[in-house]
Amino acid sequence: MTSQTRRRFLQYAGLGAGSTLLAGLPARAAEPYPSRPLSLVVPYPAGGATDASARIFAESIGKSVKQQVVVENYGGGTGLIGANKVLAAPADGYTFFAGSINEVFLAPLLNPSARYKPQDFLLAAPVSDANIVLLVRSGLAADSLDKFLDLARQNRSKPLTYATVGIDSIYHLMGDALGARTGATFLHVPYKGAAPALQGLAGGEVDFAILPYQSSFDSMQGMGRLKVLTSFSRALPAPLKHIPLISLSRQVPDFEYTISGGYFVRQGTPAERVAALRKAIGEALAKPDVRARLEAEGRTVERPIDSQAQADQCFDQYMGRVTQLLRSVGRKAVA
């Protein structure tokens, strides 16, 4: 055997021995999920309806997955800042989004600066429909929606101002649509979230607001700081039965709107991690105390789902509702 042949033989022998040793080692176990705290991104400041709901879920989800769920608030841009925070994070299931039609659908369809599309998100599970209400400042001479609309038409040279969570939110589009439908003139005043919009209304900065219901509205009404004139829902959960339904209006009895929401992850998140998150969300939705707390905050609560196919179907339904909404208010999606 020549020296060159001997060297080759030793190389192959060593390689084979190494392969045999490697083959005998157990495969490295995949990292268990979750093995560290999760971030639940809320795209509005603390104190709003989305934040209140997220904190209820965070508590229950944390117990299910045996990890802390940290609620992180990123207000501004009608949810764009929070949405981009989720899309900038790794698609590993450790960051998920308390999203709704506003941030996941309307923002990218109407705002060129969004730089993302609805399909960049994956719906893990729908959770609820938020009931939307119209509130007016203390001192405004209207105690029903119809009287409010009559008042709004009386002085068109000085339009009533209204607060929402931001430009091109569903609440903004509803205000525009309500004015167009009734011949009233309104001036939109965007805020960074429901909590600052509510503060603006209670402080007399604006005449009215269109916002998702929160239980704090009732106490503020009791203190004379605002008035809740109507919900835009056909039906309400039991804790909200004291609020007038839109069907009671003689002028716009069919002006019905709610806002659907759920928990989203970045597209590309491993399916098994999405399934684990969905299971934890479903366990929260199945708890009577969680459902009762959500209903007290004005939510019509969904039932748990158990497959991505069901979640995808809900996602498509949301897109259909948004398309219909844009058509009804004469808006077109940006290219």
From TrEMBL:
Q: Which PROSITE patterns match?
A: TAT
Q: Does the keyword ATP-binding apply?
A: no
Write one Pfam family the protein is assigned to.
TctC
Give the matching InterPro entries: BUG, Bug_dom1, TAT_signal
Going by the UniProt record, its keywords in alphabetical order are: Signal
Q: Look up the domain of life of the source.
A: Bacteria
Signal peptide residue numbers? 1-29
Q: Which CDD domains match?
A: PBP2_Bug_TTT
Q: Which Gene3D superfamilies match?
A: Bordetella uptake gene, domain 1, Periplasmic binding protein-like II
Query: Which protein family is named in the record?
Result: Belongs to the UPF0065 (bug) family.
Protein name, per record: ABC transporter substrate-binding protein
What is the native source organism of this protein? Cupriavidus malaysiensis
